[in-house]
């Protein structure tokens, strides 16, 4: 089995978490939310956000839908699926075990 | 996203791209609303180049990558095929012809030999036959049984298998009204239990059942096939309860079978099913007419079943043999010692199968060889083409294409070629297979084979495309993709020798197969010639044959009166009467005894005739006299030369006597030999006896059926057909023509199979020759193209035309020789498989072997000529300057 890329995993985790809190968010909204919640400490590269979104959509974790905005422009909003909720749990526990492992290393050395 | 939506995305690429763009635009607008600088937001998404990259990456995620690549390959392949129009057309046409022939042959063989009957459990259906060795030690296979023997066997193995008796389907006269409305239909006697065993359902009324297998002669019921019901009655539901008269018996139609079941004989579609109990010979122990089918119960071992049946059959025949003496007894011991065989019969069982199984098999092999030749041809074409494309391939490799990618690209191109050829070939097969079916029918036995296109044919076609692709596509694709960019881009081919070697090998293979096809077709053409040029001993031209029947039977005097009336019809030269025509397939034989000794073990054939018969047939009377009106059976006889040679040591037979059963005959005349039953067999001893038959008290016996032989003065005997059809009921009420044909038809029918084989084999050898010529020319001109520079130099240093021609063609000629030798060896090795189909020609005949070799050499020379001409025109100045 292919080992999940830790960086990619982080982006997935962030996107999934945000979508679980704020359903029906578009790409820009997700990016802004990451920025806001982390007090400007974390930034998602726009260039990698959209491929990640399509990849997760293809994996069935999130689903997309076009909505009409007041400005008349269409926006694509994303939502978690049941599989996505499960995946969020997996990613969260993976993150926790990884970060505690890193903390332990930092403390020991 | 489902796989399907990703597949769909491949074909909506444009729309998808614009959706992604729209989402990105929406993103930027959002950013601007939040107070960011539009340029900065755009930059954040990446520069223009990156943006496109990103879209590409996003797009690829939303589509199935390989499918899009495939689509691109197909478009590219199509362009390649279109670019080389002539090569592609030649490749597609030759493959189409070969594949079409294969599909056509498969359709025929499937319909006749392999396709399961549309019944339940066809896979458990077997047929019972027995093999006896005749007095000459030749094996004879018989699948007919006397019904009493069948019913003993059926009762004995009830627990292991269901036994079903079926007669052969015969085309006979019957009527739904008066005698004047007689019509023809295929009638088959079957066990009533068959319908239930086969899981058949009525579309109307009731089918026959086990109860209809009880009492001989008392189940006058008929069941129609669906096809017949539709064609004859237009699906009229009131047909149930109607009566039908066949022979002397009246039958009530009880129902119609649902579904496509039309009997158990591929080649003949049964219209009407009658219970076996109504068969005239159902109680006879000495008449073998019923085919025995076994529907074996699941998980029954066949060998114990076979032994059980064998014991019963043997006991039955032994019981019958009691009271036999002499030749009959010896002959009978053979039948008692017969070996019983159980063979699969899921596809039904018919004599057409027996007659054509081998011929079709050989045709199948021939078309397969033509297919090999075509594949080798196309492979060579492709290989030559890949030489010209080696720079393109090198460029592709240089900019990073993997080998697998190149092979895929070329295979897609080749697969398109194969599919196009197969589609064209399917059209060809669709037209040609029914043509063959019409070729194998003779005037009085219509052959009907259902040739529908079903999943079996489609599956075969798909398999064929796959095999063809494997044969012609894979090697050139691997070869072309193995290009070394450095040498190819520098301008030279990387390794022209290995490619040429491969092409030369293909030429040898092609020539070998071609030789074999021509050799075989030579044998079949010669067989057909020797059979059709065989002296007949009688004159079949201008001879019309009328099978005439009368319901009640009339004494010979009445038949003679009708013959006299026909004699007066204008255009009629001579009229005679016989029990049946020569070469009609009817035969009556028995052992005769000469001079009171026990009967000989050689069969004598008998035929009842009227006075004037030999004159009408134009068979010379060699000695003695013709029959007179007072001659009777038993009483007088005329014999042929073979009879005299066999029984009288060639001495003058006139006045001598012989005995057949209890009948005594005195020979009054001697006629020249003429074939009796078929053209292939040696002439048999024949005794012609008067059709005027009397019983022991000297009373004339009534006859229900005779054949009138009418020699006409006009060259087309059929011109008189309608006049004579009317003249017979006018001459005497109650007489009717049931069948009308010419003697020439019967002679032609003797060689139907040989004609079919000869024609098709000749056609395929022409195709094979054409393909071989194209292949040779292609390879020669390719190697010339490759070596033009070399030849230029050779000419510059003084080589003559002869040298150049030799240089350009010698290798290929060597390959042709090699191929011909291999083909000849294959031919000699395989000739014993076709021996039974040959007549008057031997496979080891040197003429048959040198013929194809000469033809191939001529073709090779012919295809080399343009190449040699081109080589001779090479101008060293131009050639060397070009370099």
Describe the structure.
- The complex is a heterodimer of chains A (109) and B (883).
- Chain A has one domain (6-108): Winged helix-like DNA-binding domain superfamily/Winged helix DNA-binding domain (Arc Repressor Mutant, subunit A), CATH 1.10.10.10.
- Chain A is built from four helices and three strands.
- Chain A has helices spanning 6-21, 27-37, 46-59, 82-108; strands spanning 25-26, 62-68, 74-80.
- The termini of chain A are far apart.
- Residues 1-7 of chain A have low confidence and may be disordered.
- In chain B, 53% of the residues lie in helices and 17% in strands.
- The longest helix of chain B has 45 residues, at 752-796.
- In chain B, strands 5, 6, 7, 8, 9, 10 and 11 form a seven-stranded mixed sheet that branches. In chain B, strands 1, 2, 3, 4, 12 and 13 form a six-stranded antiparallel sheet that branches.
- Chains A and B meet through helix 2, helix 3 and strand 3 of A and helix 2 and helix 4 of B.
């Amino acid at each position: 089995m292919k080992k999940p890329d830790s960086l990619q995993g982080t982006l997935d985790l962030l996107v999934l978490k945000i979508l679980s809190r704020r359903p029906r968010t578009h790409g820009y909204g997700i990016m802004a939310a990451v920025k806001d919640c982390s007090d400007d400490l974390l930034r998602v590269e726009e260039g990698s956000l959209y491929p990640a979104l399509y990849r997760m959509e293809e994996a069935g974790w999130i689903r997309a839908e076009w909505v009409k905005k007041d400005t008349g422009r269409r926006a694509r909003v994303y939502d978690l699926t049941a599989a996505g909720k499960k995946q969020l749990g997996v990613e969260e526990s993976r993150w926790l075990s990884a970060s505690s492992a890193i903390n332990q290393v930092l403390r020991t050395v | 996203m489902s796989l399907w939506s990703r597949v769909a995305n491949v074909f909506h690429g444009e729309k998808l791209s614009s959706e992604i763009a729209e989402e990105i635009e929406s993103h930027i607008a959002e950013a601007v609303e939040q107070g960011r600088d539009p340029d900065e937001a755009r930059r954040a998404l990446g520069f223009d180049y990156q943006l496109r990259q990103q879209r590409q990456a996003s797009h690829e995620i939303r589509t199935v990558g390989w499918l899009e690549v495939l689509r691109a390959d197909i478009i590219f392949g199509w362009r390649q095929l279109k670019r080389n129009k002539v090569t592609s057309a030649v490749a597609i046409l030759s493959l189409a012809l070969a594949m079409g022939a294969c599909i056509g042959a498969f359709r025929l063989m499937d319909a006749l030999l392999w396709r399961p009957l549309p019944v339940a459990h066809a896979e458990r259906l077997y047929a019972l036959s027995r093999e006896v060795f005749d007095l000459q030690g030749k094996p004879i296979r018989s699948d007919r049984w006397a019904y009493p023997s069948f019913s003993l066997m059926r009762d004995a193995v009830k627990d292991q298998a269901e036994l079903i008796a079926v007669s052969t389907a015969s085309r006979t006269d019957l009527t739904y009204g008066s005698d004047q409305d007689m019509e023809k239909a295929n009638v088959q006697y079957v066990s009533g239990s068959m319908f239930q065993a086969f899981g058949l359902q009525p579309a109307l009324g009731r089918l026959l059942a086990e109860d209809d297998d009880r009492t001989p002669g008392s189940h006058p019921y008929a069941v129609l096939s669906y096809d017949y019901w539709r064609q004859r009655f237009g699906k009229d539901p009131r047909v149930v309860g109607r009566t039908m008269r066949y022979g002397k018996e009246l039958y009530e139609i009880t129902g119609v079978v649902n579904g496509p079941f039309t009997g158990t004989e591929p080649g003949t579609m049964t219209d009407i099913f009658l219970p076996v109990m109504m068969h005239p010979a159902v109680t006879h122990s000495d008449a073998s007419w019923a085919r025995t089918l076994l529907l074996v119960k699941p998980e029954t071992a066949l060998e114990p079943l076979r032994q059980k049946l064998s014991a019963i059959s043997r006991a039955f025949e032994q019981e019958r043999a009691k009271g036999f003496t002499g030749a009959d007894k010896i002959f009978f011991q053979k039948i008692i010692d017969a070996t019983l065989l159980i063979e699969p019969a899921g596809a039904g069982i018919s004599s057409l199968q027996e007659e054509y199984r081998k011929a079709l098999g050989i045709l199948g092999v021939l078309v397969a060889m033509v297919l090999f030749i075509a594949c080798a041809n196309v492979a060579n074409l492709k290989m030559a083409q890949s030489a010209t494309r080696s720079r393109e391939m090198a460029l592709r490799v240089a900019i990073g294409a993997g080998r697998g990618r190149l092979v895929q690209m070329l295979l897609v191109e080749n697969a398109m070629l194969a599919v196009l050829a197969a589609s064209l070939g399917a059209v060809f097969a669709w037209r040609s297979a029914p043509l063959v079916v019409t070729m194998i029918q003779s005037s009085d036995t219509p052959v009907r084979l259902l040739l529908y296109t079903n999943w079996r044919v489609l599956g075969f076609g798909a398999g064929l495309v796959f095999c063809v692709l494997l044969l012609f596509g894979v090697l050139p694709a691997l070869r072309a993709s193995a290009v070394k960019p450095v040498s190819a881009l520098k301008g030279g081919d990387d390794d022209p020798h290995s490619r040429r070697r491969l092409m030369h090998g293909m030429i040898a293979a092609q020539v070998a197969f071609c030789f074999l096809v021509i050799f075989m077709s030579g044998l079949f053409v010669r067989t057909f010639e020797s059979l059709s040029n065989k002296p007949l001993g009688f004159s079949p031209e201008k001879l019309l044959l009328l099978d005439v029947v009368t319901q009640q039977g009339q004494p010979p005097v009445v038949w003679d009166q009708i013959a006299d009336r026909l004699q007066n019809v204008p255009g009629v030269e001579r009229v005679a009467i016989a029990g049946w025509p020569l070469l009609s397939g009817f035969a009556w034989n028995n052992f005769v005894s000469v001079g009171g000794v026990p009967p000989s073990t050689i069969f004598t054939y008998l035929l009842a005739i009227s006075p004037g018969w030999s004159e009408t047939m134009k068979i010379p009377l060699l000695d003695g006299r013709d029959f007179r009106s007072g001659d009777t059976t038993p009483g007088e006889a005329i014999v042929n030369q073979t009879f005299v040679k066999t029984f009288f040591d060639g001495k003058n037979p006139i006045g001598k006597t012989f005995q057949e059963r209890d009948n005594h005959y005195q020979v009054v005349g001697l006629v020249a030999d003429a074939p009796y039953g078929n053209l292939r067999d040696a002439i048999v001893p024949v005794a012609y006896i008067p059709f005027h038959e009397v019983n022991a008290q000297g009373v004339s016996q009534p006859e229900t059926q005779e054949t009138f032989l009418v020699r006409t003065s006009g060259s087309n005997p059929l011109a008189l057909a309608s006049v004579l059809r009317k003249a017979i009921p006018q001459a005497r009420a109650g007489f009717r023509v049931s069948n009308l044909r010419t003697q020439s038809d019967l002679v032609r029918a003797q060689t139907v199979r040989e004609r079919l084989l000869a024609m098709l084999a000749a056609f395929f050898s022409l195709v094979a020759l054409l393909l071989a010529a194209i292949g040779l020319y292609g390879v020669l001109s390719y190697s010339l193209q490759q070596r033009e520079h070399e030849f230029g130099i050779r000419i510059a240093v003084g080589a003559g035309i002869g040298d150049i021609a030799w240089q350009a063609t010698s290798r290929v000629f060597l390959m042709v020789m090699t191929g011909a030798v291999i083909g000849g060896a294959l031919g000699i090795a395989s000739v014993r498989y076709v021996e039974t189909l040959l007549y008057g020609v031997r496979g080891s005949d040197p003429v048959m072997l040198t013929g194809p070799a000469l033809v191939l050499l001529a073709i090779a020379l012919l295809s080399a000529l343009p190449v040699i001409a081109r080589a001779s025109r090479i101008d060293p100045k131009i050639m060397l300057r070009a370099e």
